[in-house]
Each structure stands twice: as C-alpha cells, then as structure tokens.
Amino acid sequence: MTSLERPLPPLETDLKLVFAGPPGAGKTTAIQQLSEVPALSTDVASTELGLGKATTTVGLDYGELGLGTDGRVRLFGMPGQARFSFLWPILARGATGIVVLLNAERDAPLADLALLLHHLNDELQTTACVVGLSQTADPAHADQLSEAVSATLASAGLVLPVMAVDTRERPQVLALMSAVIAMAEAQAGLSGLSGLAGQDEHAPNQNDDNASLSDHAFPAAPDDRR
Ligand SMILES: Nc1nc2c(ncn2[C@@H]2O[C@H](COP(=O)(O)OP(=O)(O)OP(=O)(O)O)[C@@H](O)[C@H]2O)c(=O)[nH]1
Ligand SMILES: [Mg+2]
User: What is the H or E stretch that residue 98 is in?
Assistant: First the structure.
C-alpha cells in the first residue's frame, strides 16, 4: 500500500463550532478572524437587500483552527437571513458548541433571537452554547439588551453566558470560543485533552498534561490572513 492509499489517521480531537445569528452579527467576520486556513466564504453582494453592509452569506462559511498535531476545530458560519433558516439545523448537526451572535444595532435583536430559538431549539437545548453581542458601541444599550437576552433565553429554559464581542477582534472571538469549549468540556467530560499546538511562552499550562482545551492559548493569526 502506498502512502497515498493509506487512510489518514483519525484526529484525536475534532471539534465542530457553529456560528449562528442574524445578518450583520459578524459570523463571517468571526470565522475569518479565527481560521488558520483561508476561510471559505459564500458571500455575495447584498446592496439590494437593505442589510446595511456590502455582502451577505448565501451558503456557509468554513474555517479551521489547529489544535496540536492531531486536533482541530472546524468552524461553520450560518447564513443569517431568515430565508435560509432551513439550513440552520442542518449546519448545527453534530456541533460541539454553538456561538450565537446578535447584532445589538439591529432593529429588533430579541426578534432575531426568537427566530433562532424557534429554528434551533433542539440544538440549543442540547449543545454547549454562548451568546455574543456585537455592535455594542452604546454600553447602556448593551447592558439593557444583555439582560433582555438572558430573560428571553430563560423563558426558553436556557441559562447561557451572554457577553459583548467585537468580531473584528481575534482575541475577543477566541475568548468566546474558549467559553463555549469550556462548556462543552463540562457537559461532555472532555477535560484533560492535551497536546495542543501553538502554545507560546506566555501560555498557561504549557507543560501541563491535564490542560484542557479551554486553557489553550491559540496561535496568533498570520499577518496575511485578513
Ligand atoms: N462597529 C462594529 N462593527 C462590527 C462589529 N462586529 C462586526 N462588525 C462589522 O459588521 C459586519 C459584519 O458582517 P458579517 O461578518 O458579514 O456578518 P454575518 O453575520 O456573516 O452576516 P450574514 O452573512 O449576512 O448573515 C462587518 O462589516 C464587520 O466588520 C462590532 O462589534 N462593531
Ligand atoms: Mg456571513
């Protein structure tokens, strides 16, 4: 058997993270920030749709982030427009974690959340999930919205972390991702995974075999990635 015919060894750690949320919440931006491979984008011009931005996703976003020599996080971004809601549960299937992004500057962020709860209820009830509020230039509005989001989630039986995020800032997106991975670890007993790549001299638990995924200091983005 040649090396080409030999099957690739299975990845020890293969996580699937899904970004959900309405148009302009920053799903595509977040995946572009995180991905270490050129992110797959299916964006098209959106100027006629009144979304207030130049492009919108009409399929999915895809990116990957390495975890050591034998692990990775696969990143999936949903198309935010309601007309694509049939795709949301399909893309969320088998996810390790879901990051819900809400755009605080949209007309009705709570209605956006309600739509997600309607179409992704089963997935949100059974999968580790965090909520990121983007476009939070007005802190008072963000605080108010954060409380309202938590209340809406609670009425659906969900108690989830809600935090502000600027998806253009990689460290903030990493923090969101680490939070959801930590939740997934706690829920599924995944803790203790080790051998993660890219740890630098500043990383905690560098030599700690018991370091969990959520402790991992992910590698910096290559300069030419944006
Ligand atoms: N001011 C501000 N802009 C942001 C923030 N987060 C993201 N953006 C910008 O908002 C836009 C988000 O666009 P996308 O990433 O395409 O949003 P999306 O969620 O993928 O939207 P759809 O694909 O249409 O569902 C981009 O232009 C970002 O640069 C934020 O916190 N503040
Ligand atoms: Mg998008």
Answer: strand 97-103
Strands 128-134 and 162-164: parallel
> Ligand 1 centre from 24 Cα, in Å?
4
* Residue 134 in contact with ligand 1 by CB distance below 6 A: yes
- Would you say 85 and 119 are in contact if contact means Cβ atoms under 8 Å apart? yes
pLDDT at 37 over 60: yes
Reported as type and span, the H/E element at residue 163 is strand 162-164
Of the listed ranges 33-37, 108-112, 150-154, 211-215, the one predicted with least confidence = 211-215
Q: Coil, helix or strand for 153?
A: helix
pLDDT tens-digit profile of 144-166? 999 999 999 999 999 999 999 99
Nearest CA to ligand 1 atom 3: 135
Q: What is the pLDDT of residue 195?
A: 31
- Does residue 21 line the site of ligand 1, with CB under 6 A? yes
| Ligand 1 proximity of 27 Cβ (cutoff 6 Å) | yes
Q: Which atom of ligand 1 is nearest to the CA of 56?
A: 24
